[in-house]
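Mods, move this if it's the wrong board.
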Amino acid sequence: MSEFVLYEQEGAIVTLTMNRPEQRNALTEPAQWDALADACRRVQRDDTVKVVILTGAGSAFCAGGNVKDFRDKKGLAAGSPAQIRENYRRGIQRIPMAFWRLDVPTIAAVNGPAIGAGCDLACMADIRIASEDARFAESFVKLGLIPGDGGAWFLQRLLGYSRAAELSFTGDMIDARMAREIGLVNHVTKSERLLEEARHLAARIAANPGGALRMTKRLMREAQHQGLETILEMSAAYQALTHHSEDHDLAVADFLASRGR
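Not the wrong board. Structure tokens:
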């Protein structure tokens, strides 16, 4: 796997660290997009993984795209309009699809600025914990661009249309405190405690059966765009699977034993 993503597993918890601190973990190259998408696929295939933590090395979470590439019409910006469209579809847009297809719960531990595509990347996680040094900006419009990697979809589902519109239309940067106030992040912690807090939350999640976690996440994701009747049908089918799982039998036995029954 590319050195851009460090893949570390401890028990049922995987930590993915974007590892280009000298570039502020910017998403500029196909190898980097591949690395994130490949890491998601690796997690999805591994039934021992129950939670993923995504963070950045150094002072930034992710600085987004390479503005010099935009100026020089390189990378994502290379070629005709039709070619640029395919650059996005075949390139960086594989990241939101990989995270969307990932059934394992994800936590973004946002250690510093999350700008443009970096902000969108944080929004792809199920839960966000931010250090006091974190900053967020849906800043595409300031460069005369639109959110090209899913931000128009993710952000308003987190914040509601009006708040997402304000961030997207102004491109303004907000600090961790404001991100907490508007619901962009769940918790804010001191920088030196960020990974400790993320791992503590991950451990609370990982204490639960993995199969139920994956199906719960998939139900919640599908419920964002399906009707109630469809979700009830899915719930009935998933519940039938859980009732016949060893994890369920053990959990019920432990629950009853703890109450002397």
